Amino acid sequence: MSKKENFVGLDIADHTIEILEITGSGKKPTLSLKNRLEVESGIIEWGRIKDPKRLADLFAKLFSISAQKQISKENVLVSLPDSLVYVHIFHLPPHSKREREKLLLKELQSIVPEKLDNILYSYQIFSEEKDVVKGMLVAMPKDAAVEWFDFFKKNKINVEFLDIEPVALRRAVFYNQKNEKICLVDIGAQSTSVNILNKERFYFSYNTHIAGDYFTREISNKLNLNLAEAEKEKIKNGLNGSDKEINTIVQGAIDRLIVDIKNIIEVNDDKEHKLVKIVLVGGASQTAGLVEYLQSHFEIPVSLFTLEKSFKTNDVEYIEAFGLALRSFDKKEYSDEPVITEKQIGQKNGAYKLLKKDESDYIRNLDEHFDVVGVSPEVNFDRYNPDTKKVSRTIWLLAFLFISILLLLGAFFFRENNRKSRQIESLKSSQNFTDVVQYRLQDLSIQVPVAVSATEYNKNRVRAKIFSDIILKIDLLDNQNNENSISQASKARALKQVSSSEELYPFHVEKIDNKDELIYKWLIFSNLDIKNMTIEKINTLNTNRIPYLFESLNIVSVEVTSNPNVYMMNVDVKVSSNQDLNI
């Protein structure tokens, strides 16, 4: 770059927007301008634009710091709220580049509860080894991307592409730093992400709801304060303030986060690639006393990240914006990183196209006496195209699955035993354990809302998706199928869509009987969300703060609501306590 140019990073969240402009020529950028504004309720919700006019007014103030100080609207790189973007670290079997799109499609189906033709995605390959291909997949709903690109055009903001917040963080953290393996903990308001990474790749990425707002809710619930008062007390006291009761409540919440971080580090640390430190970023990472408290629980160094001294700002809230601006400043250095571009909107989804082609091949192999005109391409005709090699492959696959199930059962019981031990240890540290030694089982009934579309996701709903299984009635003519066998076969197909972090509700939530086809709709939901949401609901209803141990949950039924994208899940929960919770 021969002359000085301006490069802008724009970090958009539901509650705040940060913008940072860097300038320079050659390889050394310098800080030019920065600005940060609060986003009022009702303007942006879960990453979607709800009030374009008010948002446009906000952006006008954001770029115009004063009459003399205007931030450039050229070379702008944007990251959208985490609630809108899906990030997934994948491990694929060895494959050709031609097969890669289809394999990534399977990964997309497991992480994004959207129709395939409404997904924009990008990926980065970290390594291609003999037995595994490792990389990172990022995706977002296409209609949301269209919304944002249209908004930027109308407001004359030249956005090169949409970037990913964890990747922007990595850029900022490793700028002018040596390449080493670290644990990057981003503690925000609504969520905390724990990432194991180095300068070149991500090893692991995990998100939890234990974050700044969670700390505030804990204070609010236990001290009977409104949220504004609880937030003020949290900021004032943190972990080492004068109010010991507040300190203890925040400490209890942090202890839950520490358990997650320790487990993640244990799984991802190895002799060849040792973790050297824990780095904290995000607004809630500045909680008073947090660094010192975390350091007392870890042997490796724990530190709060700050920007380079040459930038003359220690404001941790601009880290993502700085990482975004760096991507625009040095395109060559970061050219292989995944981004979402406006050009992708008009392109056909490659993986989707390949899937359609494969299913069209099945149709061409049908026996000629079948009238297949108008047959839905979603239907699997594989059984009409017998292949003797497939029988052998199926036997080997079944044997492999049987062994895998045995191993998974062993791992499950081992983890369940460890989980119970951790729960009891945690209870010992935060409650008088003698209160719950003589406990008894109690049954509770809880209702939990479930969202099946990204547009309906929020922190009070379980994330889920609907798998629609379409069955042509012509397929059923020559077979002695009863209602039960048809439903069970459909359920088996739905189970194939379930990833390791999901569960299938065992009964179809809806059956549509059209003239030529049956449609079974199956609910696939996040097993982590349902557990966390159930515990949160119990904690909210447990107004007397009676100590208890969570034992198990059982989903009794799922009900439709007036909103087609939201269902209500009825859950029976078993807890242990020495007193009745009266919920």
TrEMBL record:
InterPro entries in the cross-refs: ATPase_NBD (IPR043129), FtsA/MreB (IPR050696), PilM (IPR005883)
Pfam families: PilM_2 (PF11104)
Keywords: Membrane, Transmembrane, Transmembrane helix
Gene3D superfamilies, sorted: 3.30.1490.300, 3.30.420.40
Regions that span the bilayer: 395-414
UniProt key word NADP: no
The protein's name in its UniProt record: SHS2 domain-containing protein
Native source species: Candidatus Magasanikbacteria bacterium CG_4_10_14_0_2_um_filter_33_14
Phylogenetic placement of the source organism: Bacteria, Candidatus Magasanikiibacteriota
